[in-house]
Design brief:
- The structure is a single chain.
- With about 210 residues, the protein is an alpha/beta fold.
- It has a single domain, classed as Vaccinia Virus protein VP39 (Rossmann fold).
- About 35% of the residues lie in helices and about 20% in strands.
- The chain has 6 helices and 7 strands, in the order αβαβαββαβααββ.
- The longest helix is centred in the N-terminal third of the chain and has 21 residues.
- The N terminus is likely disordered.
Length: about 210
């Protein structure tokens, strides 16, 4: 993770894309959310584990959508994240500090396990996905930046030039094709979406 992170931004983030007022970012995020919502509706989950939930923005939205359906968000032990979680509470929502490569949940405990903009950050994506597939009874919902497009866009806006456009904290990089190949090891890829500039998959497990 970057050591130059602003004091107000929790672990794992270098930019608050959910709260941005930049019109271009807002347009990109609208496309992202539209694709995510379509895959959510197709899955129709009854319970969700959100791996790498960050500040809990999506996690809280999903808890509201599920009503009394169980939602658990997990992430690193970070006081800034904990403070954000306190602001996003629902009766059916629980946050935990946990290691995604060794989840303390039973096999098939959740209908769906999600990792939205997370796998590019984790040191062991295969172990993380294996654990997600273990605790999910039906679905995986995942998204990552699409490389090399992501780097090219960063370079075009003059960001992270010394690192050839690589966003700080991004230690894994996948093209759309390579990400589909990776997720195919954990189930049947039912849907592939490409909201610019991301890759988003819905995978049926079991």
């Amino acid at each position: 993770m970057t050591t130059a992170r602003p004091a107000t931004v929790p672990t794992g983030n270098t930019y608050d894309k959910y709260g941005s007022t930049n019109p271009i970012v807002r347009r990109l995020m609208a496309g992202f959310h539209a694709s995510l919502d379509e895959l959510w509706e197709k899955a129709g989950p009854r319970s969700v584990l959100d791996v790498g939930c960050g500040e809990g923005v999506l996690t809280c939205e999903w808890a509201e959508r599920l009503g009394d359906g169980r939602v658990v968000g997990i992430d690193l032990d970070d006081p800034k994240l904990a403070a954000e979680w306190e602001e996003r509470q629902r009766p059916n929502l629980e946050y935990r500090c946990a290691d995604a490569t060794s989840l303390e949940f039973a096999d098939g405990e959740f209908d769906m396990a999600a990792a939205i903009e997370v796998l590019e950050h984790v040191p062991e994506p295969a172990r993380t996905l294996s654990e997600m597939a273990r605790v999910a009874s039906r679905w995986l919902l995942v998204s990552v930046p699409r490389e090399p497009l992501w780097r090219a866009l960063n370079m075009a806006r003059g960001a992270y030039l010394r690192d050839l456009g690589n966003t700080p904290g991004h230690i894994n990089h996948w093209s759309k094709r390579s990400f589909v190949e990776l997720l195919s090891r954990y189930g049947t890829v039912e849907e592939v979406r490409s909201p610019f500039p991301w890759t988003m998959l819905l995978v049926r497990v079991g």
